[in-house]
Amino acid sequence: MRISSLVSWSLAAVSAWAADSNEDYKSIALRTHSLSQPYLDSDMQSRWYDFGGDTIIRTDHYIRLTADRPSQTGWIFSRVPLTATNWQIEVEFKIHGKNTLFGDGFAMWLTKERGQQGPVFGSVDKFEGLGIFFDTYRNNRPGVAFPFVMAMVGDGKTTYDKGSDGKANELAGCSARGIRGAGVPTMFRLTYFQDKSLKLELQYKTEGEWVHCFETTEPPTLPPAAYLGFSAETGELSDNHDIISVAVSSLYEPQSGDKATPGNRASKSSHRLGSTKAKKSGSWLWFFTKIFLVILAVGGGYFGYTAWRANKRSHRF
Asked: How many Å apart are CA 141 and CA 170, to the nearest integer?
């Protein structure tokens, strides 16, 4: 082995270890809240979700909350609540239709209520929890490009400001022109760290490229047990609102000798993201220890290689 090859290998190892040291958390997939084809079991029912309204499930393609027809409302809600402290929800969806004018949009919910039809993107008003709205039709909100994506935290008493497209209720949001009828799979990824942040990313411009929509510095307080759901509605204008897949994960900070329990509402504060100073110091100490060991390996390899070359030369005479 040449010294240059050994050095290259060592540098690659250091880079890999450095990347690994930046992983502050791990994830556990939650089957109870995830959806993928064929969506239904052999009895044509979903074990983990209920659905209603005008929702149609085509097992080889999509869950269609509304078809491209006027005055439709559809929903799908989890049967068990999401109780993870830190979580990530990644959803592939599709908004499309044949009309030049279209509406109204769809929503993702994490609420105390479940499976109730209503006037807010197909679900109930005065909800308690979190709503993420993908609004494709402008009612009365000048200066904002549509489609518009926004988050609202409901207290169970406040009415959604439908006339102004939620302007009075907005926690955070962004314009997402091109999200309807995009040429790549459209997705959103919502990540929540209790007491730390709520972040939304979108994929609709280029496959594999996530566009930052928003990130709150003061995350909302959500119900300790909230049902995950999706709903959509059409009025005089319409669109197909499809859910293709849902992947939900519980996020946790790995601890030595500690086993994570998916769906646990983190009775242990050590499972919250945001490392303590002691842990950060330990991580850096371990990182530099690894570098030191690599240097020792390189040095040992070099001296061993030198000795081998000297010994080989001596055998020639």
From this structure: 12
- Cβ-based neighbours of 255, under 8 Å, separated by 6 or more: 270, 271
The answer to whether 169 and 151 have CB atoms below 8 angstroms apart is no
Please name which of 177, 249, 244, 259 lies closest in space to residue 30, comparing C-alpha atoms: 249
Reference 153, options 223, 214, 211, 84; nearest CA is 223
State how far the Cα of 271 lies from the Cα of 228, in Å rounded to an integer: 22
Q: With 60 as the cut, is the pLDDT of residue 17 above it?
A: no
Q: How many CB atoms lie within 10 A of CB 210?
A: 15
> For 265-298, what is each residue's pLDDT tens digit?
443 333 333 433 333 444 444 445 555 555 555 5
Specify the amino acid at residue 253: E
Determine contact, residues 131/111, Cβ cutoff 8 Å. yes
For residue 64, count other CB atoms closer than 10 A to its CB: 20
Query: Tens of pLDDT along 81-130?
Result: 999 999 999 999 999 999 899 999 999 999 999 999 999 999 999 999 99
Residue 1, classified by CB atoms within 10 Å of its CB into exposed (0-12), middle (13-18) or buried (19+), is: exposed
Structure tokens at 19: 């990347």
Could you please report the per-residue DSSP string of 34-86? -B-TT-S-TTS--SSEEEEET-EEETTTEEEEE-SSSS-EEEEEESS-B--SE
* Beta-sheet strands, E only, within 194-285: 197-203, 211-216, 227-233, 240-252
